[in-house]
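2.7 Reproducibility. Because tokenized structures are sensitive to small changes in the input, we list the exact sequence used for Palmitoyltransferase, including any N-terminal residues retained from the expression construct. No trimming or masking was applied before prediction.
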Amino acid sequence: MDHHCPWINNCCGHMNHVHFTAFLFFSVFGAIQSTVLLAIALYRGYYANWYFYNGDRSKLVYLTLTSFLMCVFSIGLAVGVILAVGGLFIIQLKTILRNKTSIEEWIVTKAEVRDRDKPFIYPYDFGKWNNFKQLFFMPLGNGIDWPVVDGCDKYSLTIEQLVQKSEKRTRMRYFQAICDYNGSWFPLLSQGFRTTCKLPITDEPRLPLKTNDTLCVTRWKTHWLYGEKANNSKQAKGWFPRRCVVETNGKKKIIDLAALKVISQFILNCPRIVNILGQ
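Resulting structure tokens (single pass, no recycling of outputs):
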């Protein structure tokens, strides 16, 4: 699956990615056509007197005040569609040519800058043209298993992701809440104007806090931190204001039992990882 689209109320993935991409293309193309036609009508209506006396009268367009305003409004809507949907179409086209979802792009970016013995090879990139053909002309895979490049297997990306998660936990920093935070997305009254204006640009949840909560932080910005509560059985994660917490001096070793259980189950079900650990 690539992503869930609320506009079509469906997920975009193996079986309908081509149709979704075509939908984006024709939406932009239709908006461009509408903009051109409306602009021509607006131009001819504005110069109606010239067309009446000097030009071809078959091209005359008469605009009342209402039709003029509606024409301008429609052009604005069409241009908005071109910019918004066109941007999404470009993102989708880049995704197709690279054969990477947004999450995979994030994993690969971190893999390329991580210290390692040999360069990381993304297992699903066969070149731009082959990636394009794989989606539009000769779909491969069944939505679960996919062909991979030489030197990789279907677990290469998963193993890299597990290593990154392990390294992230070694970089984890611990904080303690010094005041309550109710999880508001716009905490103007409680956290101030600057914190509210510097919100993280993401749809990830906010994490409510209680005084003296211990927090494991893995990401940070100037005014916001991202993490989870220590010994949190519900695995709730989210962003919270930096001003609500202070960093503790000693790092507590907190074992995330739920995460270890998931990783251990995956390792036991993956023969290649078992072989690597055995070596």
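DSSP finds ten helices and seven strands in the chain.
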